[in-house]
Specification:
Layout (H helix, E strand, L loop, with lengths): L8 H15 L24 H5 L3 H15 L3 H10 L2 H21 L2 H16 L2 E3 L5 E3 L3 H22 L8 H16 L8 H11 L7 H12 L7 H13 L4 H6 L4 H24 L4 H9 L11
Antiparallel strand pairs: 1-2
């Protein structure tokens, strides 16, 4: 693992570790990352996905960026609005999403497929109608593709912005080509498989997006989120600012970010970039490392692009 050149880095890493494990406790998901030995799972240690998903700041800020983007799609948001308890338990939703992404990335094949089947079964029960009468269903291929692209885009941009590593040429295309496997297993179709395809997809979908009253309420809930950690407000603003810094310019405009929010986003991005080596140091025994041990590769594999 790269050397960390910070004064008192061990103390700082210890505090960061306590913060992360307070917000996202381990051992509660029931996901098995250790068996069967040698099983590479859906992606394996040679994948871009294992590397991109291994850095906490990029993943959390990228996930929050995706949530902001998702508030702009009225039909996708309707399913959350009508069938989710996000108002009372947004932190719980973040934890469940985190567990699903970690499990489908680093667990063995059967375990990842079990997680996908469980989520697909939940989606199959979610349907309803928009205020204007248009129907929606959570398992519609179009909506599944939107949710996937917004998340994958957020995670990749988070890695680019906040990882201590450098994304090499071609890695973005590898990443998008790999992670669509989960979206397609859930039922998505016509999933973009390269960075150029993702850019084209996001350009084409903008005509369906808008900021409305529901969007504003979900964003307000997100802005009030309190993780069960010390300095909860400051922590929230750090990661929400880091998430806003990842938004495409058109999305930041559509979300009507104020000059103050844009300024804080830039400051948060600088802070997260500076802290990212400490996050690696603090979280050197997580699910990604367990995946490496299961398949018998050095944990440093996560931080090399060979």
């Amino acid at each position: 693992m790269p050397a960390v050149r910070f004064p008192l880095s061990g103390v700082a890493a210890s505090r960061i570790r306590a913060w992360v494990l307070g917000a996202f406790p381990r051992g509660q998901s029931g996901i098995d990352y250790d068996d069967p030995p040698g099983d590479p799972g859906l992606f394996g240690p040679d994948s871009a996905t294992w590397r991109v998903h291994a850095d906490f700041p990029g993943m959390l800020s990228g996930g929050l960026c995706a949530l902001m983007l998702q508030t702009l799609h009225p039909r996708a948001l309707a399913a959350v609005w009508d069938h989710s308890n996000f108002r009372e338990d947004l932190v719980g939703r973040l934890r469940r999403t985190t567990a699903f992404v970690a499990g489908t990335t680093y667990a063995g094949t059967a375990e990842a497929e079990r997680l996908i089947a469980r989520v697909a079964a939940i989606h199959a029960r979610i349907s309803g109608a928009m205020p204007d009468g248009r129907p929606y269903a959570a398992d519609e291929p179009e909506l599944l593709a939107w949710v996937h692209v917004s998340e994958a885009h957020g995670f990749l941009q988070g890695y680019r912005r906040y990882s201590p590593g450098v994304l090499p040429a071609g890695a973005a295309d590898r990443y998008y080509g790999e992670v669509r496997r989960v979206a397609e297993a859930l039922g998505a179709r016509n999933v973009p498989a390269s960075e150029a395809e993702v850019r084209s997809y996001l350009a084409n979908v903008q005509g369906e997006l808008r900021l409305d009253a529901r969007s504003r309420e979900v964003l307000a809930v997100l802005g009030r989120m309190r993780l069960p950690v010390p300095m909860a407000g400051a922590s929230r603003e750090l990661f929400l600012g880091g998430a806003r810094a990842l938004l495409p310019d058109w999305a930041a405009d559509m979300l009507q970010l104020t000059p103050a929010q844009r300024l804080r986003a830039r400051a948060s991005a600088r802070a997260l970039r500076g802290l990212s080596p400490l996050f690696r140091m603090a979280l050197a025994d997580g699910t990604a490392q367990r995946g490496c041990r299961r398949v018998g590769v050095p944990e440093e594999t996560l931080y090399r692009w060979d």
